[in-house]
Design brief:
heterodimer; A: alpha+beta; four-stranded antiparallel beta sheet; two-stranded antiparallel sheet; 17 helices; 10 strands; about 40% helix; globular; B: mainly alpha; 2 domains; flat
Chain lengths: ~500, ~100
């Protein structure tokens, strides 16, 4: 560039653009590498586990006719007692009979005092019984040592206990409350809890824990009296009751239905995929909370609730109510199923959000147009005041009639309104971008443009088509995945 | 997952090649580029890329009809914008010749 000439010329522009471009490219490459390393979807075995995409090593070139273990004699089936947990179980039951009778064997005794098969096993494997005795004594010492360590490893122990709880017994999990909240919510609680640093710490911890249990969304709300059912309380029965004083906060968790089956509603989907997961997540949260010293009661689908979930989730900042009467969240759209755990743990409540879902639903109406039962209102704004709030409500009876009409073995729901909601689109960049831009557009012009595109470009079967013949054609919103198509795997 | 960084590295290299190539093409066509022309051309290419990616994303997620409509609609607009952009670049060429 000539001296004194401040005007940038093409050559210099390209030269400097090249340097900037190279810097950006290198930064991009560095960033891509960094985020590829940091990306939690790369957690081995977790990222895309639902569809087996983590099993991504191409084994075909390495297939062989004979396995790599070597046969060196006559094969023999494994004996029951060759499994350490089976033989240890046998020994424990001899030492501590379940019926409370006198021990039939003790550590002071030897191999010759053991009954038949055990005696035979330990005779054949000398030294193993001594090792068992050593482990048993160490175990007793470990229990004593735990007093020293239990605070330090409180969370790890609570996390493990939460995961192991569903494996104990044959009852439903979480167990149905057998008493009033004042009793059952405190059952099994740790009576010597550690001091929580602050409610903020409590909220952050419980959110992280809920995510590890499988929750996609977590929010914390105050428990308002008006969201409680009246006339029935689990563990008590039909009764009049007020909000138990220890129901200070609700940890609200949300997860989606499996995506491919959701899109193939009403006949290929189910509500129970999400419900069963929510039972485990909320049940584990209940166990975890009690383990760290707080009262807890889980409220899980389909009917084991003492509170109404959508308004609670709105208070927890997870989303807003949609025209179809249920919660719509920015991440999962209408494909959000909910559970909650009420607790007295000191927590920081989340604030509700307003991203314009209410206004969007006023103009969208796709769910109403596609609803095979006509249960969803077409009115511009909610016409009714329900229990003190002007809000959308579906016609429950009409909806249930369609559950009983579509081609399923029994009434197990429809979920078309969840699938067709524009907020329920796939979680990829284009829909994410649209949802983000819509949320930041106060004029609503962007959402109107997107909605016009949605209605013109996207294919919907039409409300009647979801019904069986002669009224419809058993249509589904989108083609089912091959793993749900019987004809792909069986001769029909 | 490992393919993603490799993909973007290759895209970056191709981008560099494309820019260098464009420079020579434009030089051969006697089109004088200013910084704002590069910006406009870049913006047009980004728009084209986003439209292609958007349409193909919709097709990829099983919304064939929406994807094809989206591609048709957005590519038509981009084609018109491209014609306008080219005329702008070419007009400068005429101006230069005069």
């Amino acid at each position: 560039m000539p001296k004194g000439n401040k005007k940038i010329n093409r050559r210099d522009f390209i030269k400097y653009s090249g340097i900037a471009g190279a810097a950006l490219t290198l930064s991009g490459i560095a960033g891509a590498g960094y985020f590829a390393g940091k990306d939690k979807s790369t957690h081995t075995g977790w990222g895309k586990g639902a569809y087996g995409e983590n099993q991504d090593f191409n084994r075909t070139p390495f297939r062989v006719n004979n396995p790599t273990y070597k046969k060196a004699g006559k094969p023999v089936r494994i004996g029951y007692l060759e499994n350490i947990f089976n033989r240890n179980g046998e020994l424990y039951r001899l030492m501590h009979p379940r019926d409370g009778s006198n021990p039939k064997w003790s550590l002071q005794q030897g191999v010759d005092d053991l009954p038949g098969d055990l005696k035979k096993f330990y005779k054949k494997h000398p030294g193993r019984l001594d090792e068992f005795k050593k482990a048993y004594r160490r175990g007793r010492q470990q229990k004593k040592n735990w007093e020293k360590y239990k605070d330090q490893y409180l969370l790890a122990d609570a996390w493990s206990a939460a995961h192991s709880s569903p494996m104990r017994g044959r009852e439903a999990f979480p167990a149905e409350p057998q008493d009033a909240p004042e009793k059952s919510d405190f059952k099994g609680i740790n009576t010597k809890p550690c001091q929580l640093k602050s409610p903020g710490h409590g909220s952050r911890l419980m959110k992280k824990i809920a995510h590890t249990f499988g929750a996609t969304l977590v929010g914390i709300a105050p428990v308002k009296e008006e969201w409680l059912y009246q006339g029935y309380l689990r563990g008590v029965g039909k009764t009049r009751y007020e909000k138990p004083p220890h129901w200070k906060h609700a940890i609200v968790v949300g997860i989606p239905h499996e995506w491919e089956s959701l899109y193939a509603n009403p006949v290929y989907g189910t509500s129970y995929d999400a419900y069963s997961m929510l039972n485990f997540i909320a049940g584990k949260l209940e166990v975890f909370l009690k383990h760290i010293g707080y009262a807890a009661r889980s409220h899980v689908p389909p009917t084991d609730y003492d509170l109404v979930m959508p308004p609670l989730a709105i208070d927890a900042g997870l989303g807003e109510q949609g025209r179809n009467g249920i919660l719509i969240t920015p991440e999962l759209g209408a494909n959000t199923r909910l559970a909650a755990v009420t607790t007295n743990m000191p927590l920081e409540n989340d604030k509700p959000i307003d991203i314009g879902i209410k206004e969007f639903c006023e103009k969208c109406k796709i769910c109403a147009e596609q609803c095979p039962s006509g249960a969803i209102s077409f009115d511009k704004q909610p016409p009714q005041v329900i229990r003190g709030y002007r809000r959308w409500e579906i016609n429950q009876e009409k909806c249930f009639t369609i559950w009983n009409t579509v081609a399923t073995s029994h009434p197990r729901g429809c979920r078309v309104c969840l699938a067709v909601c524009p907020y329920s689109r796939k979680n990829n960049w284009i829909h994410k971008l649209a949802k983000q831009m819509d949320a930041y557009d106060p004029t609503g012009a962007f959402s109107s443009a997107m909605l016009a595109m949605q209605k013109q470009f996207f294919d919907y079967p039409g409300a009647q088509e979801y019904l069986p013949p002669p009224d419809g054609s058993n249509a589904v919103y989108q083609e089912p995945p091959d793993w749900l198509k019987t004809e792909e795997w069986f001769d029909l | 997952m490992f393919i993603q960084p490799v993909f973007w590295i290759i895209i970056g290299m191709l981008g560099l090649l494309m820019i260098t190539s464009a420079k020579y093409w434009l030089s051969d066509l006697n089109i004088v580029m200013k910084w704002w022309k590069w910006l406009l051309a870049g913006a047009w290419f980004v728009l084209l890329s986003l439209s292609l990616a958007g349409g193909m994303t919709l097709i990829g997620e099983g919304e064939q009809q929406a994807g094809l409509y989206f591609l048709g609609f957005s590519l038509l607009i981009i084609l018109l914008l491209g014609v306008g952009l080219w005329r702008l670049l070419a007009r400068k060429k005429k101006d230069t010749n005069q």
